[in-house]
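// run 5 | inverse folding | seed 20
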């Protein structure tokens, strides 16, 4: 049995060409080494980014590669993004709390293996899970924090921490859910430490406050102010207030939050936001010839429904503002005659007109390509029936479906030319070159990118197979 076990065991790195390849790569001089169609060039590129004098980092990267090979973690050592993580880990070779070679693979999922390896090397004490992707990014400071926490330092002892934390904030920082980014974790903990509800703390975390920590003395007071608001603070309202305060601060350097109430501040911010948006759209005012598609009116019981074409940028702006989406961004497409935008409205007796849906029509293809309700929600059954009846009358086909919305939603809230929209999006803080799927939103890969990935994977796989023989 012992002989059979030895026969079936994979050879160690020292017995294979893989070890020779890593050894050659580790001695390469620093410089620009690109992908040359071989797996060895991928490994070389990692070492040539390391200074020749940084022996510890080069040696650590070599040890990581060889040990992962011996542990049959082939997905990690053949994937460029994972190799970047190993290179970042190597920068802290002198700070590891356990020997690399004492780590043993558990499980077959590469991301779990990599997480386990990071914890093994640096986490003598528990480290919040949201910090794990730091080694996949390019922010060295966040990696330092992981290493420091893993070695036993407190949150309040972390190097160059951008916010003055209380013990309560430090406690909440450690309890941050894994899906949060580091900047968001700081803001969330800050808000909770000041007494914010979970809901309002989450809004603060996902707001533009997480874009940076400049002028922190002022924004800390803003967070403290919002944290004391008892009612729910929706993200879109918070964003408008924050943009408004930023504009005020630029004109009033000594601006304070003293004597303010949330309701009054929100009202001022909304009025400012409406005016800024009107100015923006008036400056670029467009109008266009209506498409040769008729409007539609039908009366059901005592309620009148109408589908009306929008023919200038002001009408698009009002539609977008009332419906809380940015259909106003389609003015150029309407002006060039590519599409037409219609508004489905409801007129009930003794009630104000209600907008039910915004509809996009491809003029050339004679297709209804999108229809969305308020906040970009799906249209109701009632609206769908009316749109279909109108489309049939005008000879239009309907080409949208719930599945389509998952692939191509109506325009999202955005910020243009530094001016806040009615419902601005949370700022995108995805600065990582690689983030495991459990920490990121899904992204599309183009066909060319997919083919390149497959080709590279095959080349690396062939190289590994040759190295084993």
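// decoded
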């Amino acid at each position: 049995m012992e002989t059979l076990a030895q026969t079936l065991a994979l050879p160690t790195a020292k017995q294979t060409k893989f070890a020779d390849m890593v050894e050659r790569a580790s001695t390469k001089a620093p410089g620009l080494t690109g992908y040359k169609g071989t797996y060895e060039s991928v490994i070389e590129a990692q070492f040539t980014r390391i200074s020749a004098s940084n022996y510890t980092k080069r040696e650590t990267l070599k040890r990581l590669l060889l040990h992962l090979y011996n542990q049959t973690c082939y997905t990690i050592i053949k994937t460029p993004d994972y190799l970047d993580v190993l290179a970042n880990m190597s920068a802290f070779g002198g700070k590891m709390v356990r020997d690399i070679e004492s780590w043993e693979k558990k499980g077959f999922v590469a991301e779990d293996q990599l997480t386990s390896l990071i914890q093994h090397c640096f986490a003598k004490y528990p480290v919040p899970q949201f910090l794990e992707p730091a080694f996949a990014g390019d922010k060295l400071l966040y990696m330092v924090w992981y290493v420091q926490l893993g070695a036993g330092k407190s949150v309040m002892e972390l190097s160059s921490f951008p916010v003055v934390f209380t013990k309560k904030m430090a406690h909440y920082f450690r309890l941050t859910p894994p899906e949060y980014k580091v900047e968001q974790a700081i803001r969330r903990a800050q808000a909770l430490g000041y007494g914010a509800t979970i809901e309002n703390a989450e809004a603060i975390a996902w707001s533009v406050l997480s874009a940076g920590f400049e002028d922190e003395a002022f924004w800390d007071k803003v967070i403290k102010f919002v944290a004391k608001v008892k009612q729910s603070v929706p993200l879109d309202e918070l964003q408008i207030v924050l943009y408004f305060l930023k504009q005020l601060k630029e004109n009033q350097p000594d601006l304070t939050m003293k004597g303010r109430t949330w309701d009054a501040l929100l009202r001022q911010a909304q009025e400012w936001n409406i005016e800024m948006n009107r100015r923006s759209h008036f400056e670029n005012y467009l109008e266009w010839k209506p498409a040769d598609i008729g409007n539609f009116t039908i009366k059901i019981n005592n309620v009148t429904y109408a589908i009306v074409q929008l023919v200038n940028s002001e009408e698009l702006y009002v539609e977008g503002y009332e419906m809380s989406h940015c259909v106003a961004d389609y003015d150029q497409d309407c002006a060039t005659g590519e599409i037409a935008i219609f508004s489905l409205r409801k007129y009930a007796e003794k009630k104000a007109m209600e907008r039910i849906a915004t509809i996009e029509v491809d003029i050339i293809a004679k297709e209804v390509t999108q229809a969305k309700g308020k906040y970009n929600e799906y249209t109701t059954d009632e609206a769908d029936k009316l749109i279909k009846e109108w489309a049939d009358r005008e000879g239009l086909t309907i080409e949208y479906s719930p599945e389509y919305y998952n692939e191509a939603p109506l325009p999202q809230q955005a910020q243009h030319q530094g001016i806040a929209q009615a419902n601005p999006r949370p700022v995108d803080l995805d600065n990582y070159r690689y983030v495991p799927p459990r920490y990121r939103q899904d992204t599309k890969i183009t066909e060319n990118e997919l083919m390149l990935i497959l080709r590279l994977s095959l080349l690396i796989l062939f190289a590994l197979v040759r190295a084993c023989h």
